[in-house]
Design goal:
Layout: H1 2-18, H2 27-72, E1 127-133, E2 136-144, E3 149-152, H3 158-171, E4 174-175, H4 197-204, H5 214-218, H6 231-243, H7 251-262, E5 278-279, E6 281-285, H8 293-306, H9 310-314, E7 319-324, E8 329-333, E9 343-345, E10 358-360, E11 363-370, E12 376-377, E13 380-382, H10 392-395, E14 396-397, E15 400-401, H11 405-408, E16 414-416, E17 423-427, E18 429-431, E19 437-440, E20 446-448, E21 451-453, E22 456-464, H12 469-493, H13 498-501
Parallel strand pairs: 9-10
Antiparallel strand pairs: 1-2, 2-3, 3-17, 4-6, 5-8, 6-7, 7-22, 8-20, 11-17, 11-22, 12-21, 13-16, 13-20, 14-15, 18-19
Helix pairs in contact: 1-2, 6-7
The structure holds 2-acetamido-2-deoxy-beta-D-glucopyranose (2 copies).
One 2-acetamido-2-deoxy-beta-D-glucopyranose binds near residues 387, 390 and 395.
């Protein structure tokens, strides 16, 4: 632009300089005047152009600052320093309150338009502050971008770690189901847990009124691998319940229904087990209404951390607590599954397509809590974290199997030493780019190195999401309807509660 201006001035000058030939006598004067005029006009134009640019620039900066301020400001008090736990693109809608009362649980957030925020990793080593509890903030450090993995030290206090371990011991642990190398295949048909029918009834009876309502069964429709009741059992119980004229089961009716569902040979185990090997013991701790306050607090902290709709987190699997004794391990695996049209998610099974033959775990993200520190071994390994490329074939190469944690733990890209109270958060799925859950993130492969010295306790909190947003919405509507239908009755059993309810852990 400057050049055009110069050119223009140049032209003016040549036009002018032709004239003096006609009147040579005033030529010196004219040339001086021209000179002055030229430099005047030139600097003014230049000045105007610079000032226009300058103002536009300043206005842009102000507009940008205002935009950032109003987008992050009011809703996000916890992350004031700008290292906001910001969510991507369209998920910028109003986020749900972090810790709602449990009673309004399934009623909200079941509109099909809700979306799944994701925390931004920024870069490996980036630290952002998050507000999880009223009296302090926590630091959250990005450990890898593939998968998106964070570490939050001090997520649980020492006391809370101890309580969770004690509750797990109180409830009793069972062998993790996938057989260890030394164990035979025939084991898989045996009942998981030697609970009496009365105990199962009591565990299912969340409000402890001596009757099983449909809602109570549905709320247990959780995980395939390891939950003490298989989805098949739950369906049988549900069918029995629907056959009952009262729509509820007392202990006597339950015994009849449950014994049928437990009969061997009737187990329809449609899942093909893969080669996955692990050795550990685990149990499940219910975290909802009436559970121990530490478990309840942990769930609310997960909601604050992930910024996910609270209903989604509250309808997810119970907390899984795992104990690894000397030599115990798990090979590298995925917590979630590729979505196939011929399988449904376990958690939405009752609302989903019951004619689909397979059933898989659908876990958007994992929050892993280290409940103890361990002197040696027992690291969590992510063998392909932030690898440049992922190639399934390259996992097993030249006789080296990167998923075999007993042999190749030291070759993984990322290994984390358990420290009591630290939480890890990672996304098992990518985003689908429209604010919902996308494909399984193949980099989220992880396993547990053998514990060498000491006992390792960890807990897993999974957030279940159905890749089909419609099915997830339908499931949440179903639970909400049950909840509302039940809430009329709620008044008369609510008072007889809390000490009894703690039985459920
Ligand atoms: C349910 O699954 C079957 C078998 O996979 C499929 O043919 C059918 O279209 C599915 N129905 C719905 C409503 O998704
Ligand atoms: C990790 O990245 C390297 C370099 O791109 C590649 O050669 C290797 O196969 C990758 N490993 C896996 C398991 O994909």
């Amino acid at each position: 632009m400057e050049e055009t201006l110069e050119d223009f001035m140049e032209q003016e000058e040549t036009k002018d300089s032709d004239e003096p030939s006609l009147s040579p006598y005033n030529s010196p004067f004219r040339s001086t005047r021209l000179h002055i005029q030229r430099s005047n006009v030139c600097s003014r134009a230049y000045f105007v152009v610079v000032m226009v640019f300058f103002h536009v620039y300043i206005l842009n900066v102000i507009a940008l600052l205002l935009y950032v301020h109003y987008n992050n400001g009011p809703g996000d008090l916890g992350s004031r320093d700008g290292a906001a736990v910001a969510s991507v693109g369209e998920s910028r809608g109003p986020l749900p309150p972090p810790a709602p009362g449990p009673r309004d649980l399934p009623v909200e957030d079941h509109s099909p338009s809700f979306s799944l925020p994701r925390i931004e990793g920024i870069r490996v080593g980036h630290v952002q502050r998050v507000s999880l509890v009223p009296d302090r903030t926590h630091e959250m450090k990005t450990l890898s971008l593939k998968p998106l993995l964070f570490e939050i030290p001090g997520f649980l206090s020492e006391e809370e770690c101890r309580v969770v371990v004690q509750l797990a011991q109180l409830k009793g642990l069972m062998e993790s189901q996938a057989p260890a190398p030394s164990h035979g295949q025939e084991e898989s048909n045996q009942p998981l847990l030697s609970l009496s029918t009365e105990e199962v009834f009591s565990l299912l009876d969340l409000n402890q009124d001596g009757l099983l309502q449909k809602q109570e069964i549905i709320s247990h429709s959780h995980s395939r691998d390891g939950t003490w009741l298989s989805p098949h059992n739950l369906r049988q119980i549900l069918t029995g319940l629907e056959d009952c004229p009262t729509g509820m089961l007392n202990l006597e009716n339950f015994r009849r229904v449950y014994d049928v569902s437990q009969r061997p040979g009737k187990q329809q185990n449609g899942m093909v087990r893969n080669q996955f090997k692990q050795r550990s013991k685990h149990t499940w701790l219910y975290q909802g209404l009436g559970s121990h306050h530490v478990l309840h607090a942990l769930r609310n902290r997960v909601i604050s951390l992930t910024h996910l709709p609270s209903a989604l987190v509250e309808l997810s699997e119970p907390l899984q607590v795992i104990r690894y004794e000397h030599g115990d391990f798990s090979n590298a695996h995925y917590d979630s599954s590729h979505s196939h049209s011929e399988s449904t998610c376990t958690h939405t099974r009752l609302a989903g397509n019951s004619s689909a033959p397979g059933e898989v775990s659908c876990r958007y993200l994992t929050v892993l809590f280290y409940l103890t520190s361990i002197k040696e071994g027992g690291e969590t390994t992510f063998p392909v974290a932030d690898n440049r490329t992922y190639d399934e074939q390259a996992l097993v190469q030249d006789g080296v199997d990167l998923t075999d944690t007993q042999e190749t733990c030291d070759r993984g890209n990322l290994r984390l030493k358990p420290t009591a109270g630290t939480a890890l958060l990672w996304y098992n799925h990518l985003s689908d780019g429209r604010g919902w859950m996308g494909e399984l993130d193949e980099y989220s492969l992880h396993g547990d190195c053998p514990a060498r010295h000491g006992v390792k306790w960890v807990a897993n909190s999974w957030v279940n999401v159905d890749p089909d947003q419609q099915v997830q919405a339908r499931y949440q509507r179903l639970v909400a309807q049950r909840h509302q239908a039940k809430s009329g009755m709620e008044e008369h059993y609510q008072p007889l509660s809390h000490s009894d309810l703690h039985q459920d852990l």
